[in-house]
Write a structure and sequence with these properties.
The chain is α/β, with parallel strands linked by helices. It has helices at residues 14-25, 40-44, 47-64, 76-86, 93-101, 126-137, 157-169, 258-272, and strands spanning 7-10, 30-34, 105-108, 111-115, 118-121, 143-146, 173-176, 180-186, 189-194, 199-202, 240-242, 245-246. The chain has 2 domains: 7-45 and 87-124 and 211-272, FAD/NAD(P)-binding domain, CATH 3.50.50.60; 126-202, FAD/NAD(P)-binding domain (3-Layer(bba) Sandwich). It is globular.
């Protein structure tokens, strides 16, 4: 495929969608490339499905605290089906049609940069707290291992203590300052050996150990981009990553939140349209969706 565009947006998560939408509204000729689903991680695998599930256990627990009301039962099949509805049954057909109607060229493929301004198409800590509490309230026996001295280690020790109190009130076995050293089979179950010398047998292991940017194979180096030690794209105060190349969202390693990605999307679009906009990251709101919710005060 050979074509010329004013802008090519690789990755249609929230940030990419904001940038593409603004550029299209300004009359730019835009191609959007997504190897999975338009809407990205938040819409299909992270924020939307997890918060949909968390709301049911939160409401049931809140009702159980009110005098004269029995704690309601949770209908798991109905909750599961509603989650699937909220993530559109992992179908982004409507989103694809929407971009096509706006004049965008939609390409379902992997992408690789081959030089400045060119694209070669070759084919498309809060997590453990939130899901651990959800699973405990759904009736599972839960153990949480955290290698740092306190939970949610990116936040203050006080926030970690509040999270610990909340989780233990739900019967969760929380262990900090330890890590899993080995996982092995124990009959039909799995066994986890812990650095404190203990051994835990379990049916399911959930890894909430963080993420790395998916930058491998994109050919970023050919366009003058530089990656940090974690594989994130290094950007300047304008979100510029190289000559005629910008990066936004989680791939930059800057505050991995949907609202930050959308902010960067607006900023990148403005810069592409001739404005000189700088990114500022002071006072970014964030919250751990435990019950009660926990948010920093800085």
């Amino acid at each position: 495929m050979s074509a010329r565009f004013d802008a090519v947006v690789i990755g249609l998560g929230p940030g990419g969608e904001v940038a593409a939408g603004r550029l299209l509204a300004a009359g730019q000729r835009v191609a959007v490339i997504e190897r999975e689903l338009i809407g990205g991680e938040c819409a299909y695998w992270a924020c939307i499905p997890s918060k949909t599930l968390l709301r049911a256990t939160e409401a049931a627990t809140a009702a159980g605290r009110v005098a004269g009301i029995e704690r309601p039962a949770i209908d798991w099949p109905a909750l599961r089906d509603y989650r699937d509805y909220m993530v559109r049954h992992l179908d982004d057909t409507t989103q694809v049609e929407g971009y096509t109607e706006k004049g965008a060229t939609v390409i379902r493929s992997d992408a690789r940069l081959v030089g400045p301004g060119q694209v070669l198409v070759i084919g498309g800590s809060a997590v453990g707290v939130e899901l651990g509490q959800f699973l405990a309230r759904m009736g599972a026996d839960v153990t949480i291992l955290e290698r740092s001295a306190h939970l949610v280690p990116r936040e203050t020790a006080r926030m970690g203590e509040l999270a610990l109190q909340s989780l233990r009130a739900d019967g969760i076995d929380v262990r900090t300052g330890v890590e899993a050293t080995r996982v092995l089979r124990a009959g039909p179950r799995a066994a986890v050996e812990v650095s404190d010398g203990s051994r835990i047998e379990t049916e399911v292991i959930l890894l909430g150990t963080g993420r790395r940017p998916r930058t491998a194979g994109l050919g970023l180096e050919t366009a003058g981009a530089r990656l940090d030690e974690h594989g994130a794209v290094v950007v300047d105060e304008h979100c510029r990553a190289g000559t005629r190349l910008w990066a936004l969202g989680d791939v930059t390693g800057v505050a991995l939140f949907t609202h930050v990605a959308m902010y960067q999307g607006r900023l990148v679009a403005a810069n592409l349209l001739g404005e000189r906009r700088r990114a500022h990251y002071e006072g970014i709101p964030r919250v751990v969706f435990a019950d009660p919710e926990i948010a920093p005060s800085d």
